[in-house]
Design brief:
Layout: E1 11-13, E2 16-21, E3 30-35, E4 38-44, E5 50-54, E6 68-70, E7 73-75, E8 82-83, E9 89-91, E10 105-106, E11 108-111, E12 114-118, E13 141-151, H1 155-160, H2 165-170, E14 180-185, E15 188-193, H3 202-207, E16 216-222, E17 226-232, E18 238-247, E19 251-261, H4 265-287, H5 291-296, H6 309-319, E20 323-325
Antiparallel strand pairs: 1-20, 2-12, 3-4, 4-5, 5-10, 6-7, 7-8, 8-9, 11-12, 13-19, 14-15, 15-16, 16-17, 17-18, 18-19
The structure holds FE2/S2 (inorganic) cluster and fe (ii) ion.
């Protein structure tokens, strides 16, 4: 099967990607981040705003993360040129004035305790939002950053695991016949289970007394690289975000984020700690079986069956997205 974007080590989908946890960047700090092969310096000004710039100083190429933050601007360590939040040079000390040079800046945002970077040259339109949990779109959320991980295969391949209906039976011993219904909106695609089953599953037996309808299993993908799993009985849904980025050679670096809606008061806070701990346990239950597969797989869906239908739909979805070239972030031709 030939795909240009899906499972390609050379391209990634233009979108929002996680850069670093918000709490790792305090006011006045600057950090180096390599995102899809491009080196960035990300800093937080005294007004708390976060700015992402290309890493190398337009004077002589020093890494700007060696520099320091002054107010809301960044000063290069090497010869002390200073740049504002638009990347404009505002001071060259040895000349006593600025020079008309600029560094590239990239749009940033913060959500779920993470700093995100938009990888397109121009700011994203409103219809291309930060990844979010569909059910909690209009809610204030509580979140915890859980596991950070590396996988030896492409982010797209890690992603489709969550809609690989057949492997739930074989790997996770979760004998539910899952048939997915898909829903596609531009850069997002969701898959929801529409069947019941799993009478013999221990997991389902445990939660069965608490629900009347079938268990919800919903997967929403953003930009082909961030997936949100929503799972649970009607009265209590768990939300786990897996946000992935492409490393050199088609490998994956990922971060798990546990999310629930904010609940008021100290009891709400305690309740949320319990919910998030349970969410972690649910995530671990599904994460443990596949680990060795991701170490050695050479993904090639040569013989798709009916059960692989959702994977095929995900591949088609990925192929419709806007590709950027790994490392240069140029548009592909
Ligand atoms: S390299 Fe940055 S000021 Fe000279
Ligand atoms: Fe799995």
């Amino acid at each position: 099967m030939f795909n240009k974007i899906f499972n390609s080590p050379e391209y990634f989908i233009e979108g929002w990607y996680w850069a670093l946890p918000s709490h790792h960047l305090k006011k006045g700090q600057v950090k180096p981040v390599t995102l899809m092969g491009r080196d960035l310096a990300i800093f937080r000004g005294q007004d708390s705003s976060v700015t992402a710039v290309d890493a190398y100083c337009p004077h002589m190429g020093a890494h700007l993360a060696e520099g320091k933050v002054e107010g809301n601007a960044l000063r290069c360590f090497f010869h002390n040129w200073k740049f504002d939040v638009d990347g404009t040079c505002i001071e060259v000390p040895c000349m006593g004035e600025a020079l008309p040079v600029k560094i590239n800046t990239w749009q940033t945002a913060e959500k779920y305790g993470m700093i995100w970077v938009w990888t397109g040259k121009t700011a994203p339109p409103e219809r291309l939002p930060l990844p979010f949990v569909p059910e909690l779109e209009h809610e204030e959320c509580d979140s915890v950053l859980a596991k950070r991980f590396i996988k030896n295969c492409h982010p797209n391949v890690v992603m489709v695991n969550a809609i690989d209906a057949h492997h739930f039976n074989t790997v996770h011993n979760f004998p539910v016949k899952i048939v997915f219904e898909k829903n596609e909106i531009q850069n997002a695609i969701t898959f929801s289970n529409i069947t019941r089953g799993g009478e013999n599953s221990l997991f389902l037996k445990l939660i069965r007394p608490f629900y009347k309808k079938a268990v919800t299993y919903n997967m929403c993908y953003w930009y082909g690289s961030t997936g949100v799993v929503t799972v649970g009985p009607d009265f209590l849904h768990f939300h786990i975000m897996f946000t992935l980025r492409l490393l050199e050679g088609g490998k994956t670096e990922g971060q798990t984020i546990l999310i629930t809606k904010k609940r008021a008061g100290i009891l709400g806070w305690i309740f949320n700690r319990i919910i998030l701990a349970l969410t972690n346990a649910v995530g671990n239950y599904f994460a443990k079986g596949d680990t060795k597969i991701f170490q050695t797989i050479k993904f090639d869906l040569k013989t798709p069956t009916k059960a692989d239908n959702s994977i095929m739909q995900f591949i088609h979805h990925a192929e419709k997205q806007k590709p950027r070239v790994w490392s240069t972030w140029e548009k592909s031709i």
